[in-house]
Model the fold of this input.
Amino acid sequence: MTNPYTTPSASGPAPKWARKRYALPALALALFVGIGIGAGGEGTGNDAKPAAAKPAPTATVTATATATETAEPEPAATVTATETVKVTKTVTARAEADTGSGSGSDSDGDSGSVYYANCSEARAAGAAPIYRGQPGYASHLDRDNDGVACDS
Done:
């Protein structure tokens, strides 16, 4: 009885699968070795040093920097020129002459042809304070009804 697990004799050529089993890994190994050698040769140059190096003079450079501190200039004084102008305008209201006609036209609420809408106008005209009976007096200007308009 023959052993089924023994290899056949070398009587004929090896099958195709047996050739692939050895040839393909050998080609892959050769490829990786070739890539490794090619990549290692990029930085090759003349790295060899001569056996007897000649002494060469050496150069020493010394840099010295000197810093001087300068004082900051004081800011210039600011001069501001101010001109004050005071304008005064004086308007004098003429008092109407009392004709004595007794017509009663000058009553407490009506004081002639001069009219001030407010005390600011009366002060601007130089007529404040205005007393009852004087031209320009009106009851709306007399806040406390004491007979003196624009008194404060």
In short: Residues 71 and 77 are 18 Å apart (CA to CA). The mean pLDDT is 75. DSSP finds two helices and two strands in the chain. The helical segments are 16-40, 119-124.
